[in-house]
Amino acid sequence: MREPIRFAERSVQALEDARLREVLRRAMEDLRRKWSRGASELPYFGVLRDQAKQIKAHTLLHLDAYLEQLEARITARGGVVHWARNGEEACRLVVGICQEVGARRVVKSKSMVTEEIELNRALERAGIQVIETDLGEFVVQLDGDRPSHLIAPIIHKRREDVAELFSRHLGTPVDAPVEVLTRAARSHLRQAFLTAEVGVTGANFLVAETGSVVLVENEGNARLVTTLPRVHIAVTGIEKVIPRLQDLAVFLPVLVRSATGQKLSSYVSVLSGPRRGEPNGPEAFHLVLIDNRRTEILRDPELREALQCLRCGACLNACPVYERVGGHTYGWVYAGPIGAVITPLLLGPKASFELPYASTLCGACREVCPVRIDIPRLLVSLRERMVASGSVTPLERWLMRGLGWALQSSVRYRWASRLGRIVQSLMWGEGPIRWLPGPLRSWTRKRDFPRLAPQTFRERWRKRSWTPGQRS
Amino acid sequence: MDARSEILSRIRRALHGVPQVPLPSGGPPPEAAAYRAEIGGNLVERFTREAEGLGVRVYRTDPQRLLEVVVGILRAERAQRVGVSERVGWMAPLLQTKGFTVGGADQAERVEIGITGADYGLAATGTLVLLSGPEQDRVLSLLPPVHVAILPEDRLVVDLHALFERIRPEALPSALLLITGPSRTADIEQTLTPGVHGPGIVHVVLVR
């Protein structure tokens, strides 16, 4: 059984890390600026987002048929499709393929699903060397760290941290600038590409009509991973399928503009089966389709929408909570607003009951989501379930009941707010409320409690010196 | 039950009785008409502007002067070893007579510059489209630090919508590659750095 993720506790630690806050603040500002540029530059961006959402919604409701079509097309092109009920099965399949082809070294491009199923650990246990080749993921692997953002894995690190790490492992100067670090990674990893027998990738999209795996990237490492090794294994969730090749004309701009603000990423590879008469490219192609609780999410009409996520990271960049606490605070693979939804669904509520509360429900995530996932609604729905399953303290339940009672009648509400104001001035005078008694203390540990206004809106309305409809 | 049947039957159970959502018709949305028409009227100009905005050098020439332009690029890049893709294989002997060491796709890791053809160009984004095939390898546009792409002007189309109108799904090769500017990363402190894995320098020669 997994230890529960203590989001509140972890966020206190993160908030006390001044360096982390500074790094995150700068990075998030930059990413948000890029998003605005990408979203505003294309006049029909909103229309594309609506189309993307509808295509995703449609596909998920015919998921069985599209997966079968995908499988048939890949098989016809000489590829092999494998199905895995959970992460363990998926890892076993990948390790099995690697052993069958006698692989001793595997190169990987960035993939969140392989983090989810902990594929690297499984491969290493089988004695197979795994090398992450995305620059950020390479740093994460060297440092024994974890990615903290969907598309920018080392957003929590400074250049100095990377320079120090590379000086230990790659022999670059301790004060090396970014270009030198990048060049060192390039030449180090090029050797890995040329000697690995197997390349492992995720997938941004699967095209049912053509049996294609689509990879979106800027560095070129995914191209190398899918071109140089003899075998390409793509590992991905069943929700990644889209119906038609032409749907990419909708999804690529929507994904890329939301993720990095670019019009298109440097590279998009649409890969359909192993090589056929080409001088290079893999001789064998495998696709591992993973369920790992996705069918359970699909069964849930309230939460099904979460499966539409493109993993672009826009909701992380827009989120005031993520900006302050960073990705590691969410305790698992998927961070930010969408992580607060997905993690409880994939790990189960017991392991992550605090996560749906890791949001102010301000709605910024919904505004920027390329497929307009109503993340606040999903979070509220998860909170309802947590409450219904009894994961609230007696005090909380008592307070909520009292609040419900007071809000149900205007007379009660008026008297309650009057009483509140009396209590407030007796206990705290006219100054800010800096402390609360007993178990409520934790509210005021980091911030003041908001004061009730001296007059309610109704009282002010009654005393107004003008009548509605008349300009004051 | 094996994993495949179990997953598929779980999906069917999950979706049982759920009302359907129609698949939107393909093609560009009507709202895009004016924006796309404007690009369609200035394909060369728009492609050039978009590609140059990403740091790509764009040239425009006649078939007669193509070799001269390519040699100019090779000299400016101070390249000696050049990889030439089959698609533009006619160039290989001519470049050899100009004193360059010329190889094919099998030399991609050793050459300083890779020269390839491109099958399409997308004007809206300054994108090169390469369809892999017996004559179109996947490495000369990827392994060398510099990539030179030769693109006939009549292969310029507006955008992805226009591209997928021209490519039949059943004719899709094992790799369709979209290349938009040089290889780049911004992983370290959002600092944009070119050439992390693929070519850091890209030249496109548009041929009339």
Q: Which descriptors apply to this entry?
A:
heterodimer; A: 472 residues; alpha/beta; Rossmann fold; six-stranded parallel sheet; four-stranded mixed sheet; B: alpha/beta; 24% strand
List the helices and strands and how they pair.
The complex is a heterodimer of chains A (472) and B (208).
Chain A (H helix, E strand, L loop, with lengths): L6 H9 L2 H24 L3 H17 L1 H14 L3 E5 L2 H14 L4 E4 L3 H5 L2 H7 L3 E4 L2 H9 L15 H11 L8 H18 L2 E4 L3 E3 L4 E6 L3 H5 L5 E7 L3 E2 L5 H13 L6 E5 L12 E7 L3 H6 L14 H5 L1 H6 L10 H12 L16 H5 L6 H14 L5 H14 L2 H19 L12 H4 L12 H6 L10
Parallel strand pairs in A: 1-10, 2-3, 2-4, 4-7, 5-8, 7-10
Antiparallel strand pairs in A: 5-6, 6-9
Helix pairs in contact in A: 2-12, 3-12, 16-18
Chain B lengths: L2 H13 L17 H9 L1 H11 L3 E5 L4 H11 L4 E4 L6 H7 L3 E3 L9 E5 L2 E3 L4 E5 L14 E7 L3 E2 L2 H7 L8 E5 L4 E2 L7 E2 L6 E7 L1
Parallel strand pairs in B: 1-12, 2-3, 2-4, 4-7, 5-8, 7-12
Antiparallel strand pairs in B: 5-6, 6-9, 10-11
Describe the fold and architecture:
The complex is a heterodimer of chains A (472) and B (208). Chain A is α/β, with parallel strands linked by helices. Among the domains of chain A are: 42-292, Rossmann fold (3-Layer(aba) Sandwich), CATH 3.40.50.10420; 410-462, no CATH class. In chain A, 50% of the residues lie in helices and 10% in strands. Chain A has 22 helices and ten strands. Chain A has helices spanning 7-15, 18-41, 45-61, 63-76, 87-100, 112-116, 119-125, 135-143, 159-169, 178-195, 221-225, 248-260, 294-299, 314-318, 320-325, 336-347, 364-368, 375-388, 394-407, 410-428, 441-444, 457-462, and strands spanning 80-84, 105-108, 129-132, 198-201, 205-207, 212-217, 231-237, 241-242, 267-271, 284-290. In chain A, the strands form two sheets. Chain A has a six-stranded parallel beta sheet, sandwiched between helices. Chain A has a four-stranded mixed beta sheet with strand order 8-5-6-9, sandwiched between helices. Chain B has 208 residues and is α/β, with parallel strands linked by helices. Chain B has a single domain, classed as Rossmann fold. In chain B, 28% of the residues lie in helices and 24% in strands. Chain B has six helices and twelve strands. In chain B, the strands form three sheets. Chain B has a six-stranded parallel beta sheet, sandwiched between helices. The longest helix of chain B has 13 residues, at 3-15. The mean pLDDT of chain B is 96. Chains A and B meet through helix 2, helix 3, helix 4, helix 8 and helix 10 of A and helix 1, helix 6, strand 9 and strand 10 of B. Strand 9 (267-271) of chain A pairs antiparallel with strand 9 (175-179) of chain B.
